[in-house]
Design a protein that fits this description.
InterPro entries: ABC_transp_unknown, DUF7088
CATH topology of the domain at 205-323 and 375-393 and 424-503: Rossmann fold
CATH class of the domain at 205-323 and 375-393 and 424-503: Alpha Beta
Transmembrane segments: 21-44, 609-628
Domain DUF7088: 54-153
Strand order of the largest sheet: 6-5-7-8-18-17-15
Helix content: 25-40%
Number of strands: 20
Protein name: ABC transporter
Keywords: Membrane, Transmembrane, Transmembrane helix
Largest sheet: 7 strands, mixed
Strand content: 15-25%
Radius of gyration: 35 Å
């Protein structure tokens, strides 16, 4: 037998043994791998890393605290019109952002939150369910379909121990009517607030101390002001008597102090200690509360004293406020009817989006707030706190004495005489944050006395009480025999948002606005700026020439009627030449508009080439190179 054949025969058993060992090892690994995967999916959680610049998918500690302390099971239903939004890529992208945040909260809840996603197609039970749960549909979907994009949340009853969540009865249902992409910065806050409110078993109690008749008069049949009625739908509103007030119950979530005039020292001390204990206070003061029915001041024979102040507490908090100064603003003057004529009142202000803090959750979604004879706040020189404006005037504002406004009550336009803007934005409402010292250090020996607040204490300050009155934001109107309230400003929403924000837990208050998921195309914007500088002057020149051509053409046109045939052949030739020039100029303008976007389009093509052709080609090339090197290396070993 040849030696080579003998060598192959002797080698065959060894080769088969190695192959058998390899197959056995693979089978053993398979037997170990499958149970390991099942066990890890059952007991272990995947570790995820948020690599976004602004940590968009990382929940804040405040949200984590709310989710971790849920006391009862919650069921969330996200309604999104999938078919109706197929031509709305921005809304679809935002829906993905909302869905991923909700899924993050569900994963954190350890089964206490259940999420269901529904596409409410038209004329279906799901559409009726969305409307029944308080969602609002938007128009403008594909083929004119209505678009639902909101969240309904239900707090489920305890039920039996082994009862499924779907079989339990909802005890409370709340909703986010529509996820507005303009509010994306407050997405986490809105969802966390919904979870927090669903977890509450009763309306949060809030206290009201007021020298104005905000609660109405049951004896005279006068109803409460509309803003109090609106608050009563969400909160347990309790009226507190300042004359007998010695302390404020810690269960009061928010205290509204409206137009404090000559408050007793004990009441001021109770407010002082309430704030230092971490209570949430909103103060409404006013240089001239127009609905104040108090009698004439002792030192005045013309006008009663309708101003209010909180001097002792303001001084301790480092707040500067003058109850005898009113902010005028001719740029935001509110149009009113007086003696049958319409005029702009510079002491009554129509604050728009530019005067509202778009980065604060209270005012981010509001469009218009009306105020009247408002004062302003500033920080004292020795203040250890800081002001975060909520409402402010335009730079066209001017500060004048209150008496001057009262003297001009019959002719508000006289306030514009000798008007001199101060070129400053006066703060009409703000958050005051920081560490507050007690305004009553002499009571330090009393039981339970606090001398200083926590470092993150907060008080809301508003330098106007008239914004609470009905006349500045609602008016009654009769529809089909029923009296309805027509809302023409967001004053009520401002107060409700303010109280809603303060009444939340400290965890909820810690959730601030986040960045949006829409990242700006800085390169595109830079190209656009260069294109603007390069071509807009040419566009301006052509438009000027076009205007001159049109004017000359109008001059050469013969008059209508019997004179229309009097134009000479030379005039008609010149008219035709100007018309041709007009068409040429219009073409050049279109070319300029095309050039404005040419570089941006070129950038888009380059990006498409890189993403569609170059990157895949590089991946394939690297794969082929790696495979060739591996094959070559294997051949060398043989």
């Amino acid at each position: 037998m040849p030696r080579s054949r003998l060598h192959r025969l002797l080698a065959t058993p060894l080769h088969l043994t190695r192959r058998g060992v390899l197959y056995g090892a693979l089978a053993l690994l398979l037997l170990l791998f499958v149970p390991l995967i099942v066990a890890s999916s059952r007991w272990l959680h995947a570790s995820r890393v948020d690599l976004t610049t602004d940590k968009l998918y990382t929940l804040t500690p405040g949200t984590l605290h709310i989710v971790d302390t849920l006391q009862r099971p919650l069921r969330l239903t996200l309604y999104f019109s999938e078919h109706a939004t197929r031509d709305l890529p921005q809304l679809r992208s935002y829906e993905q952002r909302v869905r991923e945040m909700l899924q993050e909260m569900v994963a954190r809840s350890h089964g206490r939150i259940r999420l269901q996603i529904i596409d409410p197609v038209p004329y279906s039970d799901d559409e009726a369910s969305a409307e029944g749960n308080g969602l609002t549909a938007a128009n403008g979907g594909s083929n004119g379909e209505r678009v639902f994009f909101g969240l309904a949340g239900s707090a489920m009853s305890g039920g039996r121990e082994n009862e499924a969540m779907d079989d339990r009865v909802p005890e409370k249902t709340l909703a986010i009517a529509f996820f507005d992409p303009a509010r994306e910065a407050f997405l986490e806050y809105d969802v966390a607030k919904l979870l927090y409110e669903l977890n509450q078993t009763s309306k949060p109690p809030i206290g009201v101390i007021s020298s104005l008749p905000v609660q109405g008069n049951p004896v005279l049949g006068t109803p409460p002001w509309a803003v109090l009625q609106q608050l009563g739908q969400l909160f347990d509103v309790q009226s507190l008597d300042a004359s007998t007030l010695r302390s404020i119950d810690e269960h009061i979530k928010v205290l509204l102090l409206i137009h404090p005039k000559r408050l007793p020292p004990d009441a001021q001390y109770a407010i002082d200690q309430y704030v230092l204990r971490g209570g949430h206070l909103a103060v409404f003061v006013d240089p001239d509360a127009e609905l104040d029915a108090s009698p004439y001041a002792p030192d005045s024979t013309t006008f009663p004293d309708h101003g209010s102040d909180l001097p002792r507490l303001f001084k301790a908090w480092g707040v500067s406020y003058d109850p005898h100064k009113v902010v005028l603003d001719r740029a935001r003057a509110l149009q009113i009817e007086l003696a049958g004529s319409s005029l702009n009142h510079p002491a009554m202000l129509d604050l728009g989006a530019q005067e509202l803090n778009r980065n604060d959750v209270v005012t981010a979604s509001l469009q218009r707030i009306n105020v009247s004879t408002a004062g302003y706040f500033d920080l004292a020189a020795n203040a250890h706190t800081r002001l975060v404006p909520l409402l402010q005037s335009s730079a066209e504002a001017e500060v004048v004495p209150t008496q001057r406004v009262l003297d001009a009550s019959s002719d508000p336009t006289s306030l514009l005489q000798d008007y001199k803007p101060d070129n400053a934005h006066y703060v009409l409402a703000a958050r005051l944050r920081g560490t507050f010292d007690s305004a009553f250090p002499e009571r330090a020996g009393g039981a339970g006395h606090r001398a200083r607040s926590a470092p993150d204490a907060e008080v809301i300050l508003v330098a106007d009480t008239d914004l609470l009155s009905d006349r500045l934001w609602v008016e009654p109107q009769t529809i089909l025999g029923q009296t309805m309230m027509r809302v023409f400003a967001n004053n009520g929403d401002f107060v409700t948002n303010l109280v809603d924000n303060l009444s939340g837990s400290s965890a909820l208050l810690s959730i601030r606005g986040r960045s949006t998921s829409q990242r700006p195309f800085t390169r595109v914007q830079a190209l656009r700026n260069v294109a603007d500088q390069k071509f807009l002057q040419k566009e301006h020149e052509l438009e000027q020439e076009l205007a001159d051509t049109r004017r000359r053409l109008d001059e050469l046109q013969p008059a209508k009627g019997s004179h229309a045939r009097t134009a000479t052949t030379e005039q008609r030739r010149e008219i035709e030449q100007f018309r041709q020039r007009q068409l040429a100029i219009n073409k050049e303008l279109r070319d300029v508009q095309h050039q404005l976007n040419a570089e941006i389009d070129a950038l888009g093509l380059r990006l498409k080439f890189i993403n569609i052709v170059l990157v895949p080609a590089l991946v394939v090339l690297l794969g082929l190179l790696y495979g060739w090197r591996r094959t070559r290396h294997s051949r060398r070993r043989r």
